[in-house]
Specification:
Largest sheet: 11 strands, mixed
Number of strands: 17
Structural class: alpha/beta
Shape: elongated
Number of domains: 3
Low-confidence stretches: none
Bound molecules: L-homoserine
Mean pLDDT: 96
């Protein structure tokens, strides 16, 4: 064990980086030697920040022989990938909050880290302040986890919660969320499911113990959810949530995807509201375990970064630092496509107000081996059309797609408004 302070280099001083500096000031055994920033002259809300430790060249940090731990909180793959590769080659331990980098380049970085005998920790990258990576790798290590159902994006959960509570449209809530700073000016990464997909790629890899390929994860966002869908879901006993899902099929293939789902109101995930995140794991011998808490924000995210830093500091100098946190995946997951998945479905249909139209819908579904579980129609509207909602029993997605095609070609059907998968 070194007697002098452990030296740390921080890449990025945005919201998370600022939180990390603030929480680290209480630790006398850790020194922040350098911080890489974009703009050295920017005014920052940090007491006693010595301007001399700021640099605009992050390579100064990853190449500094005195720095033991590199903390990366800039996000994105470029230049983060090059920076972390250089740091690992220089035998530095890594703490990162970068979900996109891990999803896209994790395998390469973890292999390099194993080769160089350094550790990469990334608790903050998935579900912000919720401890999930270390629990899976330590306390739950003896389990065979076969399912994860998670809400991993606060922005979308905030929007969906507001839509449901206030009976307003996606567009209206998004505008308000942007005004309040809950949604980005360009919200694509959150609302189209990219952020959740990056997170579930890594989470599924460690929980299912096989490498999951981000490029094979089906992803669908929340932009097509209407206020109508929200209300119908409510009447049928569900809430709509953006769910990141990973499960093992009976033949041990991986079914990993991100899309909106109707979640039964009695399911624990239905009570996760606003910006809160949650991860529900199912495994043997533990059963079903739920984690919930803040998925983003300065201090919650800094809490996870700090935990990782302290874990590394506690063992620094050892030849075998935190062995249980190493990546030991040897198997690539065989991922099934969305067409091969089996789900229950909510289908919202606008049909002409003709006698027998519900029978027609039932017949078409029957043609494709789809059993209906519920049918809901609420009156007739001004155009003499009816909005009909069906919920199916478990069906293969390929059959659903074929039924939708046949429905679209039927003269009684005006429009298929939406199709949303339903949680068991
Ligand atoms: N943009 C994310 C969210 C937080 O809305 O939850 C950081 O991953």
């Amino acid at each position: 064990m070194k007697s002098e302070k452990v030296k740390l280099g921080l890449i990025g001083l945005g919201t998370v980086g600022t939180g990390v500096v603030k929480v680290l000031k209480d630790y006398d055994n850790i020194e922040i030697k350098k911080i890489a920033v974009k703009n050295i002259n920017k005014k920052r809300d940090i007491e006693n920040l010595a301007p001399s430790i700021l640099t605009t060249d992050p390579f100064e940090i990853v190449n500094d022989p005195e720095i033991d731990i590199v903390v990366e909180v800039i996000g994105g793959t470029d230049p983060a990938f090059e920076l972390l590769k250089t740091a690992i080659n220089n035998k530095k331990h890594i703490v990162t909050a970068n979900k996109e980098l891990l999803a896209k380049k994790g395998q390469e970085l973890f292999n390099l880290a194993n080769e160089k005998n350094v550790t990469i920790l990334y608790e903050a990258a998935i579900a912000g302040g919720i401890p999930i990576i270390m629990p899976i790798k330590t306390t739950l290590a003896g389990n065979k986890i076969h399912k994860i159902e998670a809400i991993l994006n606060g922005t979308t959960n905030y929007i969906l919660t507001k839509m449901e509570k206030d009976n307003v449209s996606y567009e209206e809530v998004l505008k308000e969320a942007q005004k309040l700073g809950y949604a980005e000016t360009d919200p694509t990464g959150d609302v189209e499911g990219f952020d959740s997909a990056y997170k579930i790629a890594t989470l599924a890899t460690i929980a299912l113990n096989q490498r999951v390929d981000i490029n094979k994860i089906y992803k669908e966002g929340i932009t097509k959810i209407s206020a109508n869908d929200m209300q119908f879901a409510k009447e049928l006993g569900y809430k709509i949530k953006l769910i990141a899902l990973a499960k093992l099929t009976d033949d041990n293939k991986a079914d990993v995807r991100v899309h909106p789902m109707l979640v039964p109101q009695k399911d624990c995930l239905a009570s996760i509201n606003g910006v809160t995140n949650s991860v529900v794991l199912e495994g043997f011998p533990v059963g079903r375990v739920m984690f919930a808490g803040p998925g983003a924000g300065m201090f919650p995210t800094a809490s996870s970064v700090l935990g990782d830093i302290l874990a590394i500091v506690s063992g620094i100098g050892s030849d075998n630092l935190l062995p249980f946190m190493k990546c030991n995946h040897t198997k690539n997951a065989q991922q099934i496509s969305i067409e091969q998945t089996t789900n229950r479905y909510y289908i919202s249909i606008t049909a002409n107000n003709n006698p027998g139209v519900i029978g027609t819908i039932g017949k078409i579904c029957g043609n494709h081996n789809i059993n209906l579980a519920s049918v809901l129609q609420k009156g007739i509207d001004k155009e003499n059309t009816a909005r009909i909602i069906i919920i199916t029993e478990e069906s293969i997605e390929e059959n659903i797609n074929n039924a939708i095609d046949e429905l679209k070609n039927n003269s009684s059907i005006v429009k298929i408004n939406n199709l949303i998968r339903v949680m068991e």
